[in-house]
Design a protein that fits this description.
- By secondary structure, this protein is an alpha+beta fold.
- 32% of the residues lie in helices and 22% in strands.
- The protein is built from ten helices and 13 strands.
- Strand 4, helix 5 and strand 5 form a beta-alpha-beta unit.
- It is globular.
């Protein structure tokens, strides 16, 4: 069976950043306006007053200090509070594809080989811009790649599911190299009027090239093993879809955007993921306490710290448990890949690490790698 190698990665960071202070100022302006407009109903007990937020609350709850977005003005407009991304004509490259192509070109340049050696494109992310044609096929066309492409959606775990799919294609001999991209415009499905979640997400795109070990050049990472798991839960949910996005009674409903029961998610997901990592490491004969680096999904710093402690059996160092959520926020499927892309160059041949995701579904994926 042919081994798979992570040969190169790429990252596209949007041009606009929003600090906690900016985001909270907009939210609190909205809260003050709402409470003033509904003062009588609030006094009568018919409407519940909204509570303001603070930058300190946001950082303590999540570890987030800022986030990158594709559109800043619309999000920071208290009368709008959503990104303004005009629809493009069919003849023009779509927003999601444009982001993915930028990340992919960086990965391809780092790879140093022609696109003719890529046999497949996987677009793995939480929210596709459209139902069809597949985003992956548009990205494939824009890059001039032959072969085939298709979309995958396993929420925040889409990238690790994509890595396993790519590794399986390599193992089966279907293709010799795969481009896997994770474009995320998470700001477009976030409810910026919800105090408990308005600060969570940011936008980004990542790319990974996976190729067969027998043709890989020096460097890169051997994929030692992959494991996936899903358990149904509605504690993280987004009900927007083609069956309800045109129904008048559904427009503007909070559940057509991102919703979650945060405390339940924390309680359910942390032990599930930690146990999965430990079991998978044991199966592969790896010493989990000797992992040089963990590139975990960047959902919440408190989740990552607890998972890190459970896996290593001690307090991880910042070098062992990478954190990028402070500047990128939660970028869904792309989070662990951002961490991997930015924090791998200092490791040496033989070092072992873990790319791990977890999120809605529930879904979780583990990809153990070793520096070549």
């Amino acid at each position: 069976m042919q081994r798979a190698v992570i040969a190169a990665t790429g990252l596209y960071t949007p041009p606009h950043a929003i600090s906690n202070e900016e985001l909270v100022d907009t939210f609190n302006t909205y809260v003050a306006t709402f409470n003033a407009e509904h003062a009588a109903a609030i006094a009568a007990g018919e409407v519940q007053a909204l509570l303001p937020s603070s930058p300190e609350f946001v950082q303590k709850a999540s570890g987030i200090k800022s986030r990158f977005v594709m559109n800043k003005s619309g999000i920071l407009d208290p009368t709008l509070m959503r990104p303004v991304l005009p629809e493009r004509p069919n003849e023009e490259l779509s927003v999601l594809a444009e982001m993915a192509v930028a990340a992919a070109r960086q990965a391809i340049e780092a790879w140093g080989k022609p696109v003719s050696e890529l046999g497949a494109v996987l677009c793995a992310c939480s929210n596709m811009q459209r139902a069809y044609p597949a985003m992956a096929v548009e990205i494939q066309h824009a890059l001039g790649i032959e072969g085939f492409g298709f979309d995958m959606n396993v929420a925040c775990s889409s990238a690790t599911f994509g890595l396993k799919t790519a590794a399986d294609f390599i193992a089966s001999g279907s293709v010799k190299a795969v481009l896997m991209v994770n474009p995320e415009v998470c700001s477009a499905h976030l409810n910026f009027r919800d105090r408990d979640s308005h600060f969570i997400f940011g936008d980004v795109a990542t790319a990974v090239i996976v190729e067969a070990a027998d043709q890989a050049g020096p460097g890169g990472w051997d994929i030692l093993g992959t494991r996936l798991r899903t358990v149904f839960s509605s504690n993280i949910r987004n009900n927007f879809g083609f069956l309800n996005n045109t129904a008048p009674e559904g427009i503007g409903k909070p559940d057509k955007l991102f919703v979650q029961q945060g405390r339940k998610v924390f309680k359910d997901v942390v032990p599930m993921v930690a146990d999965m990592i430990v079991d998978h490491a044991t199966e592969l004969g790896l010493d989990r306490a000797a992992l040089r680096r963990m590139w975990l999904h960047q959902a919440n710093i408190n989740m990552n710290e607890l998972i890190g402690r459970r896996v290593l059996g001690r307090e991880p160092t910042p070098e062992e448990n990478v954190v990028v959520i402070d500047t990128y926020a939660n970028t869904s499927s792309a989070g662990s890949i951002i961490a991997f892309h930015l924090r791998q160059d200092d490791l040496v041949a033989g070092d072992t690490g873990l790319i791990c995701s977890f999120g809605a579904g529930y879904s979780a994926g583990t990809v153990f790698v070793r520096k070549r």
